[in-house]
């Protein structure tokens, strides 16, 4: 039994020594001034996409990524206390949210991503 664990300790110690050498060299590579000044290129779900007029009015921007749009909508919901206190999964829509959510009075928190999908037109 000790041979099995003894071997693991030896491997773990070797990995720890190798990790300290690699981490000592890493800060030199990160501190280059050009890497902090470069603007990141976003792709996939982080890529800003043009949005509908209703979403543009709600968020105040002509294009945004889906994840950022959901984040901003949640900031609005929390800031205006629109979650149902008895059932936190339910959102009580005010007039501004109704413009995004098909004039519905209440929506479920899991429906938000589906309901904002039409506000991100597909590009050809």
Automatic annotation (TrEMBL):
This is DM2 domain-containing protein. Residues 23-43 are annotated as: Disordered. It comes from Musa balbisiana. InterPro entries: SWIB_domain, SWIB_MDM2_dom_sf, SWIB_MDM2_domain. It comes from the Eukaryota. Residues 44-122 form the DM2 domain. The lineage of its organism: Eukaryota, Viridiplantae, Streptophyta, Embryophyta, Tracheophyta. Residues 23-38 have a biased composition (Low complexity).
């Amino acid at each position: 039994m000790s041979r099995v664990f003894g071997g693991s300790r030896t491997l773990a110690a070797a990995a720890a020594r190798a990790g300290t050498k690699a981490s000592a060299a890493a800060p030199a590579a990160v501190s280059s001034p050009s890497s902090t000044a470069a603007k990141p290129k976003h792709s996939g779900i982080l890529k800003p996409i043009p949005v509908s007029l209703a979403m543009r009015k709600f968020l105040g921007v002509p294009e945004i990524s889906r994840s950022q749009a959901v984040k901003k909508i949640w900031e609005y919901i929390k800031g205006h206390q629109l979650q149902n206190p008895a059932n936190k999964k339910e959102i009580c829509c005010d007039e501004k949210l109704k413009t995004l959510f098909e004039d519905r009075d209440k929506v479920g928190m899991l429906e938000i991503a589906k309901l904002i999908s039409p506000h991100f037109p597909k590009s050809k």
